[in-house]
Amino acid sequence: MLHSPVTARSRLPHVGTTIFSVIGQLAAQHQAINLSQGAPNFPCSEALLRYASEAMQAGHNQYAPMTGLPALREAISAKTEALYGCRYDSEHEVTIMASASEALFCAVNALVHAGDEVIVFEPAFDSYIPMIELQGATPVVIKLAAPNFSIPWDEVAARISPRTRMLILNTPHNPTGTTLSAADATRLQALTEGSDIVILSDEVYEHVVFDGALHHSMSRYPALAARSVVVTSFGKTYHVTGWRVGCCLAPQALMEEIRKVHQFAMFAADTPMQYALARILAEPEHYLGFSAFYQRKRDLLCAALADSPLQLLPSQGSFFMLASFAHLSDERDSEFVQRLITRHGVATIPVSAFYRDGTDQRVIRLSFAKDDATLLAGAARLCEIGAA
Questions:
Q1: Fold that domain 19-44+289-382 belongs to in CATH
Q2: Mean pLDDT, residues 55-82
Q3: N or C of the chain: less Cβ packing under 10 Å?
Q4: Domain 46-286 has CATH 1.20.120.450
């Protein structure tokens, strides 16, 4: 162990090891069934693997263009127009990134400045607030309350100030499984009209919306698309989260600034993966069938938990559903989750981890992005739990 004479002044003094790492280590230690991580444990398309291998064999192993492979950008532009009616210019308004996380970071880094305010809804994915704070900006946190976790638009209106530069959305939402509605989009448009507010819309689960509902992308609404940066994920869509390839769509004036950051952060995403993704996008059945695929898994887990003491909350989209244990125990959700791992051998995530101040509504998050055997085995163990 080296002893450094240098004092590190942290730019993120409130950030430690993420809950995902903590739960992952504890689950491994106890060999728990993992219903905590939003990463599939089943294989991706064999065609996609073949396309990537063929790209490597064909010599596509050097840097891709900074903005992304033209064929992939064109395919994304065509897909977005077909699904949402918005035509992004593939040359100037679509950028392939080294993960959705990089796209989010580049957007915040490029468009938010010291002294700005950014509205964030909690529970929130854990990277949003650190990204804001690294810019010297102020996160303005608005809490979503169980069991509906709907956006309190009157509070949003009250919290908008002359310093508000950005509002971050996530739909379908991690961790709650909720989705935006047409009424939400209408209210958002009214609140931002005439302002200089940028909407950063994290839509990595765009193809995982249930029960025949529409995905209300910012790209679906012209007035919102004109002020939005939309971030999507190939990793989530094609079961290849380890490939780390995402996409960013935005009007040219915003994208020019985002690309300035991207070229120095990563420059380009992995080349052979981009070739493979461009080819598989020509086969829309792969992404058009995702809602039905994951809805079946959601319903399987719900049915298997019918006899459990947990109270399941509705999941409208994403890889996740929430479960309340408030009627069972006065434990903190973090304590309850640890008990599930150590006594029952199943790993979940405490929703308090998605609040900066640890707000605890005694709700846990379950992931159904698992093979059927894992879902059934995890559910069987959860059916055995009792009060503390």
A1: Aspartate Aminotransferase, domain 1 (3.90.1150)
A2: 97
A3: N
A4: no
| Cα atoms in the Cβ-side hemisphere of radius 13 Å centred on 234 | 32
For residue 89, which phi and psi values (nearest 5 degrees)? -70, 115
| Residues 145 and 155: beta-carbon distance below 8 Å | no
How many degrees, rounded to 5, is the angle at CA 232 between CA 230 and CA 237? Answer: 155
Cα→Cα distances 112→101, 116, 146, 314, Å: 16, 6, 30, 34
Tens of pLDDT, residues 183-199: 999 999 999 999 999 99
How is the chain split into domains, by residue range?
A: 19-44+289-382, 46-286
Is residue 264 classed as helix, strand or coil in its secondary structure? helix
* Tokens linked to 118: 């950014």
Residue 27: exposed, middle, or buried by beta-carbon count in 10 A (0-12, 13-18, 19+)?
Answer: buried
The helix or strand, by DSSP H or E, that contains position 349, with its residue range, turns out to be strand 349-350
**pLDDT tens digits, 293-320:** 999 999 999 999 999 999 999 999 999 9
Place of tokens 């069972």: 328
Does the pLDDT at position 249 exceed 90?
yes
* Predicted local distance difference test score (pLDDT) of residue 41: 87
209/188 Cα distance (integer angstroms): 20
Angle at 64 between CA 63 and CA 70, to 5 degrees: 170
Give dist(CA 101, CA 20) in Å, integer.
Answer: 16
- For 138, 185, 203, 285, 351, the CA distances from 192, given in Å and listed in that order, are 19, 11, 19, 36, 29
Residue-wise pLDDT tens digits, 216-229: 999 999 999 999 99
